[in-house]
TrEMBL record:
Entry-linked Pfam families: Glyoxalase_3
PANTHER family xref list: BLL2707 PROTEIN, GLYOXALASE-LIKE DOMAIN-CONTAINING PROTEIN
SUPFAM superfamilies: Glyoxalase/Bleomycin resistance protein/Dihydroxybiphenyl dioxygenase
UniProt superkingdom: Bacteria
Glyoxalase-like domain location: 7-185
Protein name, per record: Glyoxalase-like domain-containing protein
């Protein structure tokens, strides 16, 4: 089995965490309780899908270390911060990054506090980063979940809009040739033209940043959007939502 098995999650930088949470709820998503990175000033809300998820990341305490997030928000505003690839072994993912020519840093541990229904819990992860952070054309790392049961709760994976998973992420410009060469050498990834396919997830060029989300039923999805008073446009086989405060990119729901 390849070291990289698909997408783990997409990370979106948001300026106001609670306002972003409310926006995603209006979009018909169930949002987890807030989590906070231990020892850092950042916090998040997550939208758990069947095999991947969306992370809304913001600054909770600007007096603490935020890994450059506050500066990034001030410079670029809300939107895509990066992606996390899925792996069963962060050590193997680091080796795969190295073999692809991006270099591999030693895997590191990360934990965060999550306000679970029964009280605070501490999900734990091991992360692998490429040594050359720009090698893949965007910010990325690989995540090994050490406590998946703390995030994977059935009630958090049920969404009024019928969302089941992330299909594709459109970037505003094609990945450059050198980045595609690194992707092509990464175990578990393949190239299709100017797109990269990892498991069931596609990274592609588009007119604007857009997250493509699978839904079980477009009628239920549209009903949820109407209930949330969210402007949208429906076409055969899809519903499109323009960027909103708290999303930073467009959304496309596809059946």
């Amino acid at each position: 089995m390849p070291a990289i098995t698909g997408l783990d999650h997409v990370i979106l930088a948001v300026a106001a965490l609670d306002a972003a949470r409310d926006t995603w709820r209006r979009l018909g998503f169930t949002v987890t309780p807030r989590g906070r990175h231990i020892g850092w000033g950042t916090a998040n809300y997550c939208i758990m899908l069947e095999a991947d998820y969306i992370e809304l990341l913001g600054v909770l305490d600007p007096t603490q270390f935020d890994n450059g997030l506050g500066e990034r928000l001030a410079r670029d505003g809300e939107g895509l911060l990066g992606i996390a690839l899925a792996t069963r072994s962060a050590d193997s993912a680091a080796a795969a990054f190295d073999a692809a020519g991006a270099g591999g840093e030693p895997a590191r541990d990360l934990a965060r506090l999550l306000d679970g229904p029964e009280g605070p819990v501490q999900p734990a992860f091991r992360l692998a980063y490429p040594a050359r952070r720009d090698a893949f054309g965007l910010s990325l790392f690989a995540t090994e979940h050490l406590t998946p049961e703390l995030l994977r709760r059935p009630e958090w994976e049920r969404h009024a809009n019928g969302a089941t998973g992330i299909l594709r992420l459109d970037l505003p410009a094609p990945l450059a040739g050198p980045a595609l060469a690194v992707w092509a050498a990464l175990e578990g990834a393949r190239i299709d033209g100017e797109s990269v396919i990892v498991g069931g997830f596609t990274l592609a060029a588009g007119d604007q940043p857009m997250l493509h989300v699978a839904t079980r039923d477009l009628d239920s999805c549209e009903s949820a959007l109407r209930d949330g008073h969210v402007a949208h446009v429906r076409h055969p086989g899809e519903i499109r939502v323009p960027p909103l405060p708290g999303t930073g990119l467009a959304l496309r729901f596809a059946s």
